[in-house]
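ok, trying the design again with the full structure, not the truncated one.
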């Protein structure tokens, strides 16, 4: 099976979540996954467009889907919000709920390509067993909680990625690299999303609850597949307890594969993952 895809990084991966883009590209290259970035891609509209102008939001998604069709490859994105918006436009166009053509493109979206999340590509196309066999330094001692957030798996009839109440793809992948993901009931709760700017105190409350429940479950870090979730978890933990680091799943895959560049990715985090990583090293040497 050819592992070639159009690549839609979205705005966050070219800015605040650069480490997600770098680690995603590195891990894809390690597994022979070819990413061809969409030429002339535009913002997906998250989060303001679909709240203020649903027609404009749909048009942004269709515009990018048409670009992917021109490249003849399914479009993959690492961002949960981008995935949600692209998948929603795809669903609405295929179901005839909204137009399949937009003024920005001459050709309409025909439905020949589909939107995928990078987590889905690694879990189902690369495969958990292949990931397990590629591990060079197992992440023994890592006790993460998998945090999917609210956009990656819902609504189920549109996203079609995993169980909307109890998703498992992240957990399976983490076990494959030697980590011991901790069960908890907050894996699909909202992080506060874009309220972080206008209502930071509200997001601090939400993130504080998430961090508290993660600690109570016995976790020593978060793992996510969403740049906005990672940003909120990384910046909005307050209180007397030391904050838990929040990793992108691609960073941990790269670490387990001993890929160069991991230290550069982690240096971009505001909550230093150094204590957790040092505990991994101690466990490996024990």
């Amino acid at each position: 099976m050819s592992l070639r895809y159009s690549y839609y990084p979205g705005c966050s991966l070219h800015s605040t979540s650069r480490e997600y883009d770098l680690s995603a590209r590195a891990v894809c290259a390690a597994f022979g996954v070819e990413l061809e970035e969409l030429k002339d891609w535009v913002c997906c509209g998250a989060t303001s467009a679909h709240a203020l102008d649903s027609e404009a939001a749909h048009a942004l998604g269709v515009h990018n889907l048409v670009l992917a069709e021109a490249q003849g490859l399914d479009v993959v994105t690492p961002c949960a919000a981008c995935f949600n918006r692209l998948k929603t436009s795809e669903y609405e166009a295929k179901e005839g709920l909204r137009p399949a053509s937009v003024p920005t493109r001459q050709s309409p979206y025909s439905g020949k390509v589909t939107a995928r999340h990078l987590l889905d590509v690694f879990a189902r196309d690369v495969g958990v067993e292949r990931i397990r066999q590629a591990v060079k330094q197992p992440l023994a001692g890592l006790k993460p909680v998998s945090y999917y957030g609210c956009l990656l798996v819902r609504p189920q009839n549109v996203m079609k990625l995993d169980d909307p109440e109890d998703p498992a793809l992240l957990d399976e992948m983490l076990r494959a690299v030697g980590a011991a993901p901790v069960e908890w009931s907050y894996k699909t709760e909202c992080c506060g999303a874009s309220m972080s700017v206008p209502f930071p105190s509200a997001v601090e409350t939400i993130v504080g609850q998430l961090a508290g429940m993660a600690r109570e479950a016995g976790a020593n870090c978060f793992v996510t597949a969403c740049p906005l979730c990672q940003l909120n978890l990384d910046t909005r933990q307050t209180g007397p307890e030391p904050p838990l680091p929040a990793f992108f799943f691609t960073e941990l895959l790269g670490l387990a594969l001993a890929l160069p560049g991991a230290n550069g990715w982690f240096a971009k985090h505001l909550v230093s993952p150094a204590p957790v990583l040092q505990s991994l090293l101690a466990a490996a040497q024990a």
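Keeping the full-length input from now on. Residues 128-285 form a domain with the Rossmann fold fold (CATH 3.40.50.11810).
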